[in-house]
Sequence to fold (447 residues):
Amino acid sequence: MPEKIPVTVLTGFLGSGKTTLLNRILAENHGQRIAVIENEFGEIGVDQDLVINADEEIFETNNGCICCTVRGDLIRILGELVKRRDRFDRVILETTGLANPGPVAQTFFVDDTVSAQFVLDGIVTLIDAKHVDLHLGESEEAREQVAFADVIVLNKLDLVDTERAAAVERRVRAMNAMARILRSHKAQVPIEEVLGVGGFDLARALEYKPTFLEPEYPFEWAGAFQFEAGEYGLLLRDGPDPSMKIAFCKAGRTDKGDPVRAAERAFPWFSGDTPHERPGSRIETSNTVRLLELDETGEKRFVLSAREPGNYWLLTEHTPDEFGLEVRDATGRLHMPQVTRVFDAGHSHEDAVASFSIETDAPLDLNRFRDWLSRELQANGANIYRMKGFLNLKGIDERIVIQGVHMLVDNASLGRWGARPKRTQLVFIGKNLDQMRMRQDFEVCLA
Fold:
């Protein structure tokens, strides 16, 4: 049997230096061929253009957290990588800064197909020494990134004094006494210290979180119904969200009456494109997830179409009691599920954290852009976790990359635009950001 493919997970809160370390690894003369998986949080992906020497061995999953709906994409991409096994020696997976690495690591133990082909070599967590207190104090994901790490890179130490660096190390060591800690600035660490770690510490993960090997899903409820052929009304009332994802599928031979097997079969469906359905829509059974739009007041009715008699599964992003969910036939008779299961999501993301982008083909006036950005950082710097993107500046035939963490911003030239279309793309990730106002105010930057 061929050796399993080692996978290194790079994680760390937004702006901690993950992509910088990844680029150092790819540029190093270590003789290893590396496939890269990038996970981004946002409407547009810019990280792929920030990764050097990636060529065709880079895969991108974006617009989601890799520990939730995008985990299905991770399983799919790893399956694609196996087909080109002769073209690389190891895989590096860079997660979004908002990802909890636990479920990512979990994939390599609970998914039989993945565990047969891949081995988790280790989790490397980068920490922004200047902003670590803010991140660990506010984000459960940041704390999980430290707790699950095999190697912790204390980065950006050039931005803090010796006393502060020692305090950061003490705090991190108190959270994870077993991880190896490396000090750095600009992610300058020996490559052999982050690759070939020797294996993820499963025992420590189970000690930290006893439910580590219990799968987490992007849905919270599954119900098994016995239907005759025909149409059934899915009735929903106002709930905590203006929309809800659902899957409606015919039960298979292996998952009849077994909600866990049904959940595993449906898991990959919750990644990728999701059709939007308005009230009154007719929903056929399939392996496609629907996003039910619920932004109207009062009761909403959707139609479930069962083509033949048999057992059917309904999987919902939230529990039925949150939306007063009911299923009724044409006579109005209420149909109750024969089997139900509530799945604990196991983690949550801060509701106020969001990503949005600003894009334009018009060139920017450099001075006006600087003034606009300065005003935004003065007003919202603490809430802007991450800013990154490319600038098309009037009179400058160079592609400028700009990156920021809170109020610290840096930029550099990536060379001439060449054949690339000249376009400004900016991604902001933060909490309580007034997206509409920021977009409107940005208009003053246009030359």
In short: The first helix runs from residue 18 to 27. The mean pLDDT is 81.
